């Protein structure tokens, strides 16, 4: 790679270049917000041309998605640690949703995951296949025996979709977070009963 740009320290590989672009984008988002962060801003942050960035990412939305995905990995680890010892499916889902509603608005990079539009990590929101698959993979890490609860296969994906829809709705007004006690009561009344082992739907063939 040419030695101009990149602050005089060109990346040693394409993988390093991509990571430095992601890191630069995160800094731009922290300064300007996602709506005002452009590919030109990222290029300027790195001291390279727009064409250099385009060699690694097709559009700014793809970079923003990677920023969000990397932030989410650490967040999911924290969520799973928070849920340790909560083996009841209903309790785990309710507690997980409350934790997400409490935490995501305070961490801008995580909020990118659930944004709707071209700048969102899942582009078309919480009902895309990518978002649902991500949610199902997260549920599989819960300290819950889903099979024993009768939730397997497509049912786990359906649960993930409902959770992603609920979470997106609850986070649409980050300045007005729901009261946690009221949220727990609401989820406990209307969501938890569907996850009781005796009433959980059988897995589809």
From TrEMBL:
The keyword DNA-binding applies. Residues 38-57 bind DNA. InterPro entries: Homeodomain-like_sf (IPR009057), HTH-type_TetR-like_transc_reg (IPR050109), HTH_TetR (IPR001647). The keyword Nucleotide-binding does not apply. Keywords: DNA-binding, Transcription, Transcription regulation. Residues 15-75 form the HTH tetR-type domain. It comes from the Bacteria. PROSITE patterns: HTH_TETR_2. Coiled coil: none annotated. This is TetR family transcriptional regulator. It comes from Actinomadura parmotrematis. The lineage of its organism: Bacteria, Bacillati, Actinomycetota, Actinomycetes, Streptosporangiales.
